[in-house]
Automatic annotation (TrEMBL):
The lineage of its organism: Eukaryota, Fungi, Fungi incertae sedis, Mucoromycota, Mucoromycotina. It comes from the Eukaryota. Gene3D superfamilies: Ribonuclease Inhibitor. It comes from Choanephora cucurbitarum. This is F-box domain-containing protein.
Length: 601
């Protein structure tokens, strides 16, 4: 077995197996024999995520010096890394088996003369390009008549310097006959564009359009309504259709007639109308002709009877959509809703009276939700939305309001069957249990908690321990740790509990006010871990660099610029000075720990 060539055991198969192993188990596998050692060492380079320019340059030096590393790379993700043509060509030359690439390149400069990369070197199956579209240009004009290996394509036409236009891409999509998933960003979309896409790619399973302007197909209301019965050829194989942060969808509601007729076999639909906090909701809703929009949306509910997931943001909805779904026997598993007004409360009430007993519910918060009494109205409606509900997401991401208070203990009191909760944009609070009383929430089956872009008190997770004994997965991302001047440590103390996953990223030191600056000086860099009877370990995040994430869709409430770490250092068993802001973790066992995006366990 020590002499078997690696080709006898493809890395793709080993990767599928390794997905079910912990880092510790992978280390044990390397000790079995020499062949397994080479196999799992090679597997380390199968999927490579590079954060920033510095990491990319080190990776480029590695593949130029070692053919082994480049030959093992199958999937490469470059986050906010600018490439020139020479570096891009080097990637394909030294990584001949690269099948998945996601990257954003810089605009061409005078010293960066364009060079066509030989399309024979490009064996990609999945491509994500945010700017420039150089690889796409090589695929379309590189001299090869067809690229049957490509199954997923995601392109952004934003910015300057793009080598390919939307019209050129659609005209030559027939070179990718096996394309299954297509995502386009920053375009103006017409019915003719969609018909052309389906004519070239008959096997499409998923379509997504982001930051898109919906072009009108009728001018007057009479013309728009007349399009309700226009005949189109159904796309029988398309199961997923997403419009994210699109403009004028509510005004040009004839698009909903088209979607209903064109895609009757959809399993997943997502319609997100762009929202501006500077626009009056009442005025905006008047301009959209509420009845026409509701009728058009209910037609989707009537025709798309195989739906399992429906996501709507800033789209006016009422009982007609839910009644249409009930009438044709649609049984949703997940729904996301929110028209960015108090009408969301009414829609939740209708959801509770419908036959749609969903297991996953996402509610998009609106600006007035932070007013006194609004959250108290929302919580009972959430508990009545579905008797099968076990996954709940509340998000203020688009509301323009940060750190709106949310009482987690009250939420769990109303929704006592939840196994997963995600809160985005909230200041999460929890009252300590009364030691003299048996706590009514002692049997809550909560196993997963995620808090993003908000705040939490230093003792929040400790207070959850008595009535959430099954909590085993915790994610904290871009959060302020709220405390007084004497408390400088976030505690996750569950010494008698076993944790499966703990992910901590972009945590900021305890402050007495609820604002995040995103600066290096406020970031928590020290993490103290104690598991069972083992000696405690200390980790430090170092070498911070300026970073602003690339968003898959553009909107007004963008994330703050960040300073992210590029290194996580293990210091072993050392004592931390009490004045250092830190995170203290105590548990019986922990299967996965990620700090600042770095896998520690």
């Amino acid at each position: 077995m020590n002499h078997l060539p690696l080709e006898n055991c493809p890395l793709e198969i080993v990767q599928l197996i390794a997905n079910h192993l912990t880092a510790r188990q992978k280390g044990v596998c390397q000790t079995v024999c020499r062949f397994w050692r080479h196999l799992f060492i090679s597997l380390q380079y199968y999927h490579v995520d590079l954060l920033g320019r510095h990491q990319f340059e080190l990776f480029l030096q590695s593949i130029e010096q070692s053919d082994l590393i480049g030959s093992c790379v199958r999937q490469l993700y470059l986050d906010y890394t600018m490439l020139d043509y020479r570096q891009l060509a080097t990637l394909f030359r030294y990584c001949p088996k690269l099948i998945s690439l996601s990257y954003k390149r810089d605009i061409t400069t005078e010293n960066d003369a364009y060079q066509m990369i030989p399309s024979q070197q490009i064996q990609l199956r999945r491509l994500v390009e945010f700017q420039g579209l150089d690889v796409t240009h090589c695929l379309l004009y590189g001299g090869i008549a067809s690229h049957p290996q490509i199954t997923q394509l995601s392109l952004s036409f934003s910015g300057l310097g793009s080598k390919v236009t939307k019209e050129e891409l659609i005209a030559q999509l027939d070179k990718m006959p096996n394309l299954l998933e297509l995502s386009l960003d920053s375009i103006a979309l017409t019915w003719h564009d969609l018909e052309s896409i389906h004519a070239c790619c008959a096997k499409l399973r998923a379509l997504e359009f982001s930051n898109t302007t919906m072009c009108p197909e009728g001018i007057s209301l009479k013309e728009k309504r007349a399009l309700e019965n226009q005949l189109v050829t159904p796309a029988k194989w398309l199961h997923s259709f997403r419009l994210r942060n699109v403009k004028d969808l509510n005004i040009h509601f004839e698009w909903m007639f088209y979607i209903a007729s064109k895609y009757p076999y959809l399993r997943h639909i997502e319609l997100w109308q762009s929202f501006s906090v500077s626009t009056s909701v009442e005025e905006d809703m008047h301009l959209k002709k509420i009845d026409d929009i509701s009728d058009a949306l209910s037609r989707i509910g009537k025709h798309c009877r195989f739906l399992k997931t429906a996501k709507f943001l800033n789209i006016h909805m009422d009982h007609r959509l839910l009644e249409a779904m009930d009438a044709v026997g649609t049984s949703l598993e997940a729904i996301s809703l929110g028209d960015m007004s108090d009408l969301t409360l009414s829609l939740l009430s209708h959801l509770g009276h419908s036959q749609q007993n969903v297991t996953h519910l996402t509610v998009w918060g609106w600006p007035s939700l932070c007013m006194p009494g609004r959250m108290e109205e929302l919580l009972p409606l959430l508990s009545q939305a579905s008797h099968r509900l076990n996954h709940l997401t509340l998000s203020m991401q688009f509301a323009g309001i940060k750190n709106s208070p949310c009482s987690l203990d009250q939420l769990l009191t109303y929704c006592s069957r939840l196994s997963s909760v995600e809160l985005n944009g909230f200041r999460v609070l929890c009252q300590p249990p009364d030691p003299d009383k048996t706590h009514p929430r002692a049997s809550i089956p909560l196993t997963s908690l995620a808090i993003r872009n908000g705040g939490l008190t230093t003792t929040l997770l400790d207070r959850l321990d008595p009535f959430c004994p099954q909590l085993e997965s915790i994610l904290l991302d871009s959060c302020d740790v709220i405390g007084d001047s004497h408390t400088r440590q976030l505690t996750i103390h569950r010494p008698d509990r076993k944790l499966k996953s703990l992910q901590l990223s972009y945590l900021y030191s305890p402050v007495a006010y609820y604002h995040r600056f995103g600066s290096k000086s406020n970031a928590i860099q020290w993490y103290d871990l104690t598991m069972g009877d083992q000696e405690h370990q200390v980790f430090e995040l170092k070498e911070y660099e300026y970073y602003q994430s690339h968003l898959s869709f553009d909107y007004e409430q963008k994330e703050d610029p960040l300073h992210r770490p590029t290194q996580c250092v293990h210091h072993g068993d050392i004592e931390l000075e009490p004045y250092r802001p830190s995170v203290s973790i105590k548990c019986r066992s922990l299967l996965e720990l990620r700090i600042g995006g770095f896998p520690v366990i």
